[in-house]
Specification:
Elements lengths: L1 H31 L13 H18 L3 H12 L4 H19 L9 H13 L3 H14 L4 H13 L3 H14 L2 H7 L11 H7 L11
Helix pairs in contact: 2-3, 2-4, 3-4, 4-5, 5-6, 6-7, 7-8
Length: 212
Amino acid sequence: MPKKAAAKGKRSTSKLKENKHVTKSHAKARAAQPKRPAAPRPEDDPRFAQAVQNYEAGLKAMQERKFERAKGLFQKVTASGLAQLAVRAAVHLSACNQQLAGDSSVTFKSPEEHFDFAVSLINAGEFEEARAHLEKILKQNSKADYAVYGLASLSCITGKFEDSLRYLSEAIRLNPGNRFQARNDSDFQNLADDPRFTELLYPENDFNGPPR
């Protein structure tokens, strides 16, 4: 019996050596394989940097009511092939075209695109027209909290603080996540010292973080 046990031990040892050899061979093979290059980051692409620069310059031109210049900049962004920026630029481009043509008949593919258009009007200083579009979104969907939030933001920018507080309260009721967004939104800076605004954003019984 002891001899058989010893024989088994020898076979086990030889297998272990063989496995070590196989493991080392696999490790060498893996080491010999070329490493995959890291995926390029969008911000490292010169085209991306140029598109961002054009986009920001376009927004600035809109704020200065230089719609022809803004139009040219946004056209460059839409032609860049960078999908995310191109979609945003296309919305602002529509606003520029509307301002240049004096045409109010604009169609939208979705409520979100309609909202982005209203935001572009705010950026251009067209506050009353932006308000009309936000109110139109609400007529189509009374639970569109983002439109209510937009009205709260616009009201604060234009000095209508009572309206801003009312809209913000409603936006938070429809979507509590708007409370956390408003905490870091510079559009509400004129309400920062109002205790009613503070109470809306930091209720005493609010111990929860932002919704996941």
